[in-house]
From TrEMBL:
Signal sequence annotation: none
Pfam families reported for this sequence: LUD_dom
Classification via PANTHER family: LACTATE UTILIZATION PROTEIN C (PTHR43682)
Record-given protein name: LUD domain-containing protein
InterPro entries attached to this UniProt entry: FTHF_cligase-like_sf, LUD_dom, NagB/RpiA_transferase-like
Gene3D superfamilies: NagB/RpiA/CoA transferase-like
UniProt domain LUD: residue ranges: 115-207
Organism: Asanoa iriomotensis
Length: 208
C-alpha cells in the first residue's frame, strides 16, 4: 500500500495553510475627483473620444435639438428609450419608435435605424461612456445592435477617472455598457474593421 499522501488532500492542505488568519483589507483611498467638470476635463474627454474615431459636438441645452437633428439627418428611423425627453427628438423628421421592450434584434438591425440615448456617466481619462439601463438609456440591446448611436452627455456627468464614475452610479449591480468609441476590432494583420459587435457610428453631443 502506497504511503504517499493523496494529491487532492495535499493541495487543499496547502490552500488552507496559505489563507490569512485575519480579513484582508484592501485600500480604497482613491483620489477624490468628483468635483465639477472644468474646461480641461471636457477637453480631455473630447480628445479621447475623437481619438477613438467618435464624432463629438459641444452645444448649449437650447441648441441640443438642432445638433441631434444634424447627426440624425441620414437616418431613416429612430429608436429612443422611454426616458429620452421629447425636446431631444424635436428636430428629427422621420418616424420615432419609443422602446417598450417589444423591439427585436431584427427591428433594430434594419437598414437606416439609429438610436438616441443619454448616459449615466462619462470618464474623461479613457473616453468612456457608461450606460446603466436608466430611463434615458434603455435596454443594452438598443445600443449594441443599431449601426448608428447618438449619445447625449451633460457636462455635470463627466468625471476624470473610473473610481469616481463608479461612485456616481446609483446601483453598480445594474447591467452596465461601457462604450469607448465605435465598435471596432483588428485582425492578425491589424486591419481595423468597424461595426463588428456594436454601432459603426458613434456621435456624442456634450451639453453645457
Amino acid at each position: 500500500m502506497s504511503t504517499r499522501p493523496d494529491a487532492r488532500a495535499e493541495v487543499l492542505r496547502r490552500v488552507r495553510a496559505a489563507q490569512p488568519t485575519a480579513p484582508v483589507r484592501v485600500p480604497r483611498d482613491y483620489a477624490a475627483d468628483d468635483g465639477p467638470a472644468g474646461v480641461e476635463l471636457v477637453d480631455l474627454l473630447v480628445d479621447r473620444l475623437e481619438d477613438y474615431k467618435a464624432a463629438v459636438r459641444r452645444c448649449t441645452a437650447d441648441a441640443l435639438p438642432a445638433v441631434v437633428g444634424e447627426y440624425l439627418a441620414g437616418a431613416e428611423s429612430l429608436v429612443a428609450p422611454a426616458g429620452v425627453p421629447e425636446t431631444w427628438l424635436s428636430s428629427f423628421e422621420g418616424p420615432v419608435a419609443r422602446d417598450s421592450g417589444a423591439l427585436t434584434v431584427a427591428d433594430l438591425d434594419a437598414p437606416g435605424v439609429a438610436v438616441l440615448t443619454g448616459c449615466a456617466v462619462a470618464i474623461a481619462q479613457t473616453g468612456t461612456l457608461i450606460l446603466d439601463a436608466g430611463p434615458d438609456q434603455g435596454r443594452r440591446l438598443l445600443t449594441l445592435v443599431p449601426d448608428h448611436h447618438v449619445c447625449v452627455v451633460r457636462v455635470d456627468q463627466i468625471v476624470e477617472r473610473l473610481p469616481a464614475a463608479l461612485r456616481r452610479l446609483a446601483d453598480p449591480t445594474r447591467p452596465l455598457t461601457m462604450i469607448s468609441g465605435p465598435s471596432a476590432t483588428s485582425d492578425i494583420e491589424l486591419n481595423r474593421v468597424e461595426g463588428v459587435h456594436g454601432p459603426r457610428r458613434l456621435e456624442v453631443v456634450i451639453v453645457s
